[in-house]
Structures are given as structure tokens and as C-alpha cells.
Fold this protein.
Amino acid sequence: MSEDLLIDQCSPTMAGIKTGSLFSCYADDKKTLNADIRRFNARLVPKGLRLVPMKFENNRALVYMYRPSKLAKDLNDPTAHSILSGLDYPSSGADSKVAILRKKINTSESFPHEIGLFLGYPPTDVDGFIKKGPHKAKLTGVWKVYADEDSAKKKFALYKKCAGVYRTAYEKHRSFDRLIVRER
């Protein structure tokens, strides 16, 4: 796992404007993947970020970068709480919920739709996706939008701009650590 990959896949999360990012990457083996994650977490955790391996299969890894405090706040939203409690998630602790999500990713036949809550998507849109399905969305971008299209368009543009700014800054300065915004 490289700095380039994290910048390309996680810039809005690194910048503190998105709760979490989920990405797939090549990994030689679980041992190497875990060593890479430990190495990055030594740099990320002091600034309020965390990387978690969610799944490893056939030399591919699914990795989640998130801001634990931001996730805890997001999951306390009444709609988010209702969705998760209806899916047998524990009522306390964002980390416990991440562990349940990880288990579901590894054991369920279908991908857990509630994952949007862990990525900072609006709970009303996650609820819309779960209840209405993907074809009833008003707008598709970073996520499927069922409610506030204008707000979603602004977020999509912000995430895209952030990714471009981070890519340019990294290419110019080659300083990954300077791009990690410390949690306030």
C-alpha cells in the first residue's frame, strides 16, 4: 500500500471533510498488508485517523480509512441510529460498529448497504437506498442521492476539488504527512 494510493482514494477523509473512505488494493499477503497498515496508522492515529483492513481475498484487500470521532458523531444521528439498530448493530461505540461491519463484509453474501453511514453519506440517502433500491435515486455521484440534491452536488464537487488539490500538493512537495489534517 502506497502513499499515492491513500491520497488518490482518501483525500477528503485525510482533509477532514469526509468521515471515511473505503478502497480496494492489491496486497501480496495478509502479513504484508497488516504491516503496511500498522506503519500508516503510526502516522495517522495521532492526527485522528485510522486504517482498518476490512477484507482480504485473492491478493486483494478492502481497506477502510476513517475518523473515529467523526464516525461516532455521524452514527449518533437518529436516522443512522435507527438504521443500525434495525440491523442488529450494538447501541454503543463506533469501533464496535466497525467490527460488526467488518464481520458482515466477510460473512454476508451481499454487501451491507448501511456502509454509507460509515463513509459519511447522509443517513436519509442511505435509508433511501435501503428502502427504494438503486434505481429510484434522484442523483448518482459519490453516493446515490434520494433527498437533498443541491447539498449532495456541492459535496461531490468539494470531494473532487480536494482530491485534485491533494494530488497536486503531493506531486509538488512529496510530503504525505503534511496532507493529513489533524483532528480538532
Remarks:
- Residues 1 and 32 are 9 Å apart (CA to CA).
- The chain has eight helices and five strands.
